[in-house]
Write a structure and sequence with these properties.
This is Reverse transcriptase domain-containing protein. It comes from Parnassius mnemosyne (clouded apollo). The protein has 185 residues and is α+β, with helices and mostly antiparallel strands. It has 7 helices and 7 strands, in the order H-E-E-E-E-E-E-E-H-H-H-H-H-H. The strands form 3 sheets. It has a 3-stranded mixed β-sheet, with helices on one face. A two-stranded antiparallel ribbon has the order 2-3. The chain is elongated. The relative contact order is 0.08.
């Protein structure tokens, strides 16, 4: 793991912690990705500007303004997490991956496996971080079934329950997004 987030109560403590981290990084021959580093100084809930936070003469961190965000473990953050943006980006990524799998020349069983192992994880990552309503999850499941019907993977009058049954029990083995969310959260 090479992502790190540091919290301190005072700016001087942050400087000490950054120097310690820099020293440790030098010991293990690892370098800061300065272009990916940023400092956000929050005092009583308000973001303060701290121009060019410097550890050494050649190591300067830029400061985030109120409108800027940074990516930490794939999530755009600032003072808080913007649930709406994260959900929207996740839905777009989910639908993009789903369309790629459905339009591929894989067999039906392999498309289901690709959906379960490649498409679903793009949403699973957000389940513990953002709040998803049950209707949003139902809507995503419905969109999956609609796309499957459009691309002749699922007959419109076929049983929906059978889609989610395991293959060994005579089902298709598709993972249900709502059930996964409820299990994760």
């Amino acid at each position: 793991m090479d992502d790190l987030k540091l919290f301190t109560s005072k700016e001087s403590d942050l400087l000490l912690l950054l120097k310690l981290t820099h020293s440790f990084n030098n010991d293990i021959r690892m370098e800061f990705g300065i272009d990916k580093c940023a400092v956000i100084n929050v005092n009583r809930g308000k973001i303060k500007d701290c121009n060019n936070f410097a550890i050494t003469d050649d190591l300067h961190f830029s400061s985030l303004s109120e409108t800027e965000t940074y990516k930490y473990l794939g999530m755009a953050e600032a003072l808080g997490i913007n649930d709406k943006n994260i959900k929207e980006n996740s839905k777009v990524k989910f639908m993009s991956r789903l369309k790629k799998v459905i339009k591929s020349h894989l067999s039906g069983g392999n498309k289901i496996r690709a959906y379960n192992s490649w498409v679903i994880p793009s949403l699973l990552y957000t389940f513990g971080i953002t709040r998803w309503s049950q209707t949003e999850l139902d809507d995503l499941d419905r969109r999956v079934r609609t796309l499957m019907t459009t691309h002749r993977m699922h007959h419109p009058r076929s049983s929906v329950m059978r889609l989610y049954l395991p293959r060994k029990d005579g089902g298709r083995g598709l993972l249900n997004i709502k059930n996964l969310h409820n299990r994760e959260v």
